[in-house]
Amino acid sequence: MDCLFCKFINKEIPTEIIMENDYFMAFKDINPKAPIHVLIIPKKHFADISDMDGEILAKFPEFVRNLCDKLGVTDTGYRIITNKGKDAGQIIFHVHFHLLAGNDLGDLI
Ligand code: 5GP
Ligand code: ZN
Predict the structure, then answer these.
(1) What homologous superfamily does CATH list for 4-101?
(2) Do 40 and 19 contact (CB within 8 A), yes or no?
């Protein structure tokens, strides 16, 4: 399958990995919208959140905890967003969670 994020997972295309385990990988967004902007992706391909396997999704909080400890944002806080479909502006169809942190993130949501 011709999926950019699968190529990051398979190491076909190099990217700066911040953390990975058996289920997820985290790397810096190429076009950061906050001082810390990291993308978290499952290693298995799903198009979007509605497509995702519940068993894998259940592993998400532990990964986020470890990642945020490593980034030093556990106490200061962060925001996680996932886009699904056209109206949300999804452009990569391998589900990904935007982790934003590093200053006052505003009150959009
Ligand atoms: P979406 O709108 O699909 O939720 O967001 C896709 C995100 O992927 C965007 O924030 C975009 O900057 C990021 N992105 C797109 N191409 C690349 C890439 O080649 N490398 C990295 N690290 N991020 C990318
Ligand atoms: Zn993929």
Answers:
(1) HIT-like (3.30.428.10)
(2) no
Instruction: Looking at the CA of 46, name the nearest ligand.
Output: 2
Q: Is the pTM of this model over 0.85?
A: yes
* Ligand 1 within 6 A of CB of 27: yes
Domain segments of the chain: what residues? 4-101
Residue 88 alpha carbon, nearest atom of ligand 1: 2
Q: What are phi and psi of 50, to 5 degrees?
A: -75, -15
For the stretch 59-96, pLDDT in tens is: 999 999 999 999 999 999 999 999 999 999 999 999 99
What is the per-residue pLDDT for 53?
A: 95
